[in-house]
Amino acid sequence: MEVTSWTTMKRFVYINDDSCRYSYCGNRISNTKYTFWNFLPKNLWEQFRRFMNQYFLIIACLQLWSHIAPVSPATTWGPLIIIFIVSASKEAWDDYNRYLSDKKANERKVWVVKDGTHRQIKAQEIHVGDIVWLHENDEIPCDLVLIGTSDPQGICYVEMSNLDGETDLKTRFVPSISANLSADQLGKVKGVVECPNPDNDIRRFDANMRLFLPIIDNEACPLTINNTLLQSCYLRHTEWACGVAVYTGNETKSGMSRGTAETKLTAADAMIDKLTIAIFTFQIIVVLLLGYFGNIWKDTQGLKQWYLMYPMEGPWYDFLVIPLRFELLCSIMIPISIKVTLDLAKGVYAKFIDWDEQMFDWETNTPAHSANTAISEDLGQVQYILSDKTGTLTENRMIFKRCCISDTMYGNNNEDDGLKDAKLLHAVSSNDPDVIKFLNDGTVSYKAQSQDEEALVNAASNLNMMLISKDNSSAGIYFNGSDFHYELLDILEFTSDRKRMSVVIKDGQTGKILLLSKGADEAILPRASAGQQIQRYLEAVEMYSQLGLRTLCLGWRDLEEDEYKEWSKKFREASCSLHNRESKIAEVCHSLERDLHILGVTAIEDRLQDGVPETIKLLRNAGINVWMLTGDKQNTAIQIGLLCNLITSEPSSQLLSITGKTEEDILRSLERAFIIMKNTCETKDLAFVLDGCALEIILKHSKESFTRLAMLSRTAICCRMTPLQKAQLVAILKSAGYLTLGIGDGGNDVRMIQEANIGVGISGREGLQAARAADYSIGKFKFLRRLILIHGRYSYNRTAFISQYSFYKSLNICFIQILFAFLSGLSGTSLFNSTSLMAYNVFYTSLPVMTIIFDKDISETTVLQHPQILQHSQAGRLLNPITFCGWIGRSLYHALVIFFITICAYADEKSEMQELSMVALSGCIWIQAFVVTMDTNSFTYPQIILIWGNFVAFYMINLILSAIPSLQMYTIMFHLCGQPSYWITMALTVVVGMGPVMAFRYLRDMYRPSAINMLQQIEQSNGSIQAFGGMDSALESVRTNLTDLVTDSRRNSDSNYQPLLSD
Amino acid sequence: MSSSGSEGDSLASRRSKKPKYSKFTQQELPACKPLLTPGIVIGAFSLIGVVFVPIGLASLSASQNIVELIDRYDAECVSANDKVGFIQDTKTDKACTRKITVPKPMKGPIHIYYQLENFYQNHRRYVKSRNDKQLRYKDSGAMITNCEPEATSEDGAPIVPCGLIAWSMFNDTFSFSLNKKAVEVNKKNIAWDSDKQTKFGSDVYPKNFQKGGLIGGAKLDEKLPLSEQEDLIVWMRTAALPTFRKLYGRIETDIMASDEVTVVIQNNYNTYSFGGTKALVLSTTSWIGGRNNFIGAAYVAIGGICLFLAMGFVVLYVLKPRTLGDPSYLSWNKESPDQPN
C-alpha cells in the first residue's frame, strides 16, 4: 500500500558508472548560512526580521522627513548602522568558521575504487554511484550501500552515536546478492540501486539492488537500513568495508536531519523583552497624549502666536505631525544599543569562563569552554540539574572489585582492589576449574564494546591469564605458563533488549564446543539450568549493587556437536532474513541460551569523580534540585545517589519508589508518592525513584500528575532511561516553567543536553559528542559549582544591571525631553542637539555601564561558603518588573531634579537654548557617573578609569566640539566652564539627585538588609561575630525573605494545579 | 605502555591547554569595596551640609546685593481697549513714558534687559526657522533651507536674514534719562563675541528684509553688516524657556538711591494678540550673574537637610545599634543552626 507512494519518488544509482554521477549533487557538505554574494542582502533580511530592528528602521526613515525630525537623522542612523555592522560581523565570523570546518570535512582524503583501481580523492569529490573503500575507524563520508566487508560472514560494525546517540556498536550486513564477491570483483562490480529520494529517516531505507553481468544472480535484492553505512558514523572492528554512494553531500540522511539549532533565549532575555514591550506601550501612550494635547495647544494657543505663522489651513496630514514628532523624540526611550551592549557583555562572560584557570582539568588537559556565548545568565538561575550518572558523576573508569564464583564470595574485605584477595589468588593458582572457566568466559568474550569488559580482561591478566591474541575467529590465552586456543564460532550480539551476549567457542585442545554467556542478572539468572541453586548469586548481585557496583553474571553450557550444527543453520538463516531480522536472531539466540550453568557474578566499580559529593551538596544548598538520570539499574543508581549526597539515608529522608507490575499498579504508586510528597515535603527530604518502563507508562497515561510530582520533588533518581526519555523528562520540567540544566558525557545524553535550557557536556571518556553538542563543556562534574555559583551568578547580576541601567539612562534623557515639551508649547522641540543625543547613547553612557562586567557583589569565597545566596538570582530578584519600576522611578526622579534645577538656575537672562541644554546634559552625565558608582560593589582600576575617565572625556569632547564654529554648541562649553554658577549647579544636581538614593540605600542596608548586603557586611567585618539583641523583629522579615524565594515561585506554578488537587 | 604514557604526559604538559593566568582573566584584580557604613554615610551627609550651607549663604548674599528693577509696561503703555488693534496700527504714536524710582544705589554698569513672557522662542516651528550658513557667508545668500515660511519675499527673492526668528525680532526701543538728564545707553558688545566674529558674517548685509506684506518686528539697517547688528544677534540666540530676558544695552554710570529713572518706550512689539507680557529690567551683576535666589536658597536648604539627616542617622544608630556582618543574621543560618557555616 505504501509502495505506490514512494515508487514515484526514487532515484536510480548506477554503480561504478559515470552516467548518473552529475544528475545528483556532489559530496560537498555545506553548513554555512551565507555565500560571499548573498551575505549582505540575506543578513540584512535576517536582522530586520527582529521587531526591534524594524522599529528602529521605521524611526530612522521617519527621521528623514525633516518636517517632523526634531534632530538630525544621524542620531538614529549612526547607531543603527553601527549596530548592524557589529551584528553582521559576528554572523560573518561564525559563518566563516563553519565554512572552515566544512572545508576540513570536504577535503578529507578517502579511498574510492574506480574500475578495479584504488584511488585516493577528496571527500567532496565523491559522486553518487562511486564505490567508497573504508578502513577501520574511518568516518563514513556519505551514505553508502554496503557491498562488501573483510568479514567472511559479511558483517561490519558501525558506531552511530553521532546520529542516534547510542554508543553501542551496530551490525551492518552485506546484502546477499554481493555476499560472495571477492575484493577484486567488488572493485569492478556494476549494477543499479533503486532507492527513494533523500529523506531524514535514519531507521528506514527501502530499496533494492540489482547487479549486472557477469554476476549471474540478476534478481533484485531488497535492501534495508541494515545494509547501509550512513554519513558521519564510524567503521569499527572491521578491517575494511566498501559501499556504493547513494546519497551525498547535504542530501545524506544525516545532512537532511541536521536542523539549524534553535537559538536559546535566556530567562533574563525573555524578561528584558517583556520589559521592552512594556516600555514600548508606555511610549505609545505618552506619544498619543502629548500628540493630542500638542494639537490642542496648537489650535488654541499656537494660532495666536503670530510669530509662529501657523497657516490657518494645514495639509491633510497636519494632525499627524505633532504626534509623529513626539514619537521620534520618545524613540530614545527604548535603548537602541541594549542588544549590542548585552552581546558584548555576554561575550566577556563567556571569555571569563574559557579563561578560568580553576576550571581547568589537569588530568584530561581540558579547559572549560563555552560554545554558546549567549546564555551565561541562565547559569545563575538554574533550578533543576538533570545529571547523567556514568561518566558524569562517576569517572567511567571501570575497576574489577569483587566476584562471586560458585558460591564463594571473593574480595569481601574492604580493600580497594578485589584482585588482591588472597582466597581468589589461591583459587587461581590451584586451578580451581570453575574459577578458570569464569576468567575464561570474561576474557574470551572480550570485544571491548563496553568498558566493563575491558575491566574484566585487565583483571584476568592480573591473575596471570592473559589474552594474547584475538582476531575474528580465534582467541589465544596464556595462563600459568601454557597457551590455550579457542576457536570463535559464533557471536550472539549484545542488544539492549536481550541485555546479554554470548559466544560459541571450540576448545582448541579438546574440540569441545562451549557456549559462554554474560549479561545482566535478570537476563542470565532465569536461564540457569533447572537444578542449579541461584539464590546465592541473587544475594551477591543484590549485595554488590548495594555497594554501588556494576554487576555482570556469567554462565556457560556444553554444546553437543549436533545441537550446535542444527542451531548454526538456523542462526545463519536468521542472520540473512530480510524481515524482522533482529527479532528472528533474538529468537534463535534465545533457543541456545538456556540451561546455563551459572559461573558467577562479577562486580565492577565505577568510582565517583573527585569532588562530586561536595559539589552536589553545595548545589542543593544553593536551592538547585538535582535529578539523576541513568541507564543503569535501580540499586546501583540509588547507591551512587547515596554516595554522592544526592539522597541521604533513611531517618532524614525518604525514598519513594514508583514501581508496579501492571499499569494500574504504577499509576497508583505514582498517586501515593504524590500524596506523601505533598504532605511531608516541608519536613523531610523526599526523593522518588522510577525506571524507564514506569516512566513510559506514566507519560502515556498520567503526564499531568507526574508533572505535579516533579515540581514537588527536590530529588529524583530515574534509572533505565533511554536517551529519549532523558530528553522527555527535561521537556516536562521545562514545560512547568523551570530552568533546567542537563549535564552528561556520552552520546546518549546529547538529546537531553540539547533539550535543556543549558546543556553542559563533560569532555569525558565516552568521547566528545556530548561536549560538542553542549553549550558549555567542562572537564569534571565538580567544575559545575564554579560554572553556576560564580560565573552564572555574576553574569546574571551583571546583565540585570546592564539591561536596567540601559533603560534607566534612555528614559532619563527622554523624560527630560518630555518635561521640556511642556515649556515649548508641546511642539516637539528637542532640548538636546543632535550631536549630544548621539554621543549620549554611543559614548557618555555606554562606557561606564560596561564597567559592571568587572563587578563582584561578593567575593567568590563568600559565594561558595554561602551557596544559598544563589536563590536570589534564581528567583530573579535583581531583574523583574519591581526592580525595573525602581529604575524607572529613579530615572523619573533624576529627570525631574535635573530639569527643574536647570531651569531654575538658568532662568531669565541665562535661559539660552544651547547653554541650558548643555547644563541639563552635564547634569545627566554627573548623576549617571554617581549612579554607576553607587551601584558598583567593587572598584577595580578598569572600573575607576572607565567611570571617571568617561566623565573627563565628556568634558574633553564637549570642549573640542565647542571649538568648532559650524556647530550649534560653538563656545558653549567655554562659557559654562567659566561660570561659577555652572559648577555650583552641578554640585546641587548631584546632591539632590543622589542624596535620597544614598539615604534610602543606607537605611535599607542597615535596617532591612538583603542577604547580599549581609554577606557584604560579613566580608567587610571579616566575619567577626557579635550578637546583638533587640533586632529580632527586623531579622524575622529577612529570615523569611530568602527562604520564601524559591517556595514562592513553586507556589505560583502550583496554583495552576490547585483545582486538580482538591478532588 | 608506561613509556608512551609518560611521553604523552610530558607532551601534554608542554602543550597544555591551561588558560594563562592573569589577574584580569581570573577576575582577581585588586578591588576596593566600599560599603554604606554608618561612618561613611553620616560623614558624607555632614560634609555636604558643612560645605553647602556656607556656599548657599554666599550665593544668597551675592544675589541679594544685586539691585534689580522690573517694570512691566505692556498693559500701561496701551490705553486703548482694542490693544491688538492699537499695536497693529502703524500710524499711531506708541511712545510711552515710565518713571522708575531706584530704591538702592546701583553701581554701573547697569544692564538693561527686556523681558518677555509667554513667548515661545523654543517652539519647534520657530527655533528651526533660520539658516546659519546664510548668516555667516556672503555667497550663501540664497540658502533659505528651513526658513519657511519667511524664506523669500513676495517676488521670490531670498530674504537675508531669512526665517521666523529674524522676522519677528523685538522692536521696542527705550531711551533713558536720569533726573531729567538724558543717559546714554551703550548698545555695543551686548552680543557674544563669538557670535559676532564667526556666526554672523561681517560682509553679509540684510536684503529684502521686512519687505513683505506682513511686517513681523524690527527692521534692519541695510548698510550695516550682520555682525554689527547686535540686537539681531542677541535676538537670534533663542531662549529655552517661554519667559526670558534679553540684553538691550548697558548704562555705564552709577545710579544713586532714590534717583528717578525716566524711560521713554516706543511700544511697537505685539505681545497682545497672544497674551504675552513685556517688562523692562535694570540690574547690576555680580560673580553669580544676575539676581537669582534659587541657588542660594537651595544650597542652604539642602545643606540643612543633609545636616539634619546626618543627625537623624546618628540618633537612629544610637537608638537601634546593629552589628554589621553577623553571619547568624543570615536566613539559612537561622533556619538550621546545626548547619556548619
From TrEMBL, chain A:
One GO MF term attached to the UniProt entry: ATP binding
Keywords tagged on the record: ATP-binding, Magnesium, Membrane, Metal-binding, Nucleotide-binding, Translocase, Transmembrane, Transmembrane helix
Instruction: Give every P-type ATPase C-terminal domain span.
Output: 771-1010
Transmembrane segment boundaries: 51-68, 275-296, 811-832, 887-907, 916-934, 940-961, 982-1003
Required co-factor?
Answer: Mg(2+)
Could you say which residues bind ATP here? 388-390, 453, 494, 518, 550, 630-632, 720, 726, 748-749
Query: SUPFAM superfamilies under this entry?
Result: Calcium ATPase, transduction domain A, Calcium ATPase, transmembrane domain M, HAD-like, Metal cation-transporting ATPase, ATP-binding domain N
Compartments (UniProt record): Endomembrane system; Membrane
Where in the sequence is the active site? 388
Q: Which domain of life is it from?
A: Eukaryota
InterPro entries, per database record: ATPase_P-typ_cyto_dom_N, ATPase_P-typ_P_site, ATPase_P-typ_TM_dom_sf, ATPase_P-typ_transduc_dom_A_sf, ATPase_P-type_domA, HAD-like_sf, HAD_sf, P-type_ATPase_IV
Q: Could you tell me the EC number(s) of this protein?
A: 7.6.2.1
Q: Which GO terms describe its biological process?
A: phospholipid translocation
Binding positions for Mg(2+) per the UniProt entry: 388, 390, 745, 749
Tell whether Metal-binding is among the UniProt keywords: yes
To which protein family does this belong? Belongs to the cation transport ATPase (P-type) (TC 3.A.3) family. Type IV subfamily.
Q: What is this protein called?
A: Phospholipid-transporting ATPase
Q: Which organism is it from?
A: Paspalum notatum var. saurae
TrEMBL record, chain B:
Q: Which UniProt keywords apply?
A: Membrane, Transmembrane, Transmembrane helix
Per the record, what is one GO cellular component? endoplasmic reticulum
Its localization reads: Membrane
Record flagged with keyword RNA-binding: no
Mark the transmembrane ranges.
40-62, 297-319
Q: Cite a single Pfam family from the UniProt record.
A: CDC50
Stretches of Low complexity bias are at 1-13
Disordered as annotated region, ranges: 1-22
Cross-referenced InterPro entries, in alphabetical order? Answer: CDC50/LEM3_fam
Family membership, please give it. Answer: Belongs to the CDC50/LEM3 family.
The protein's name in its UniProt record: ALA-interacting subunit
Organism lineage string: Eukaryota, Viridiplantae, Streptophyta, Embryophyta, Tracheophyta
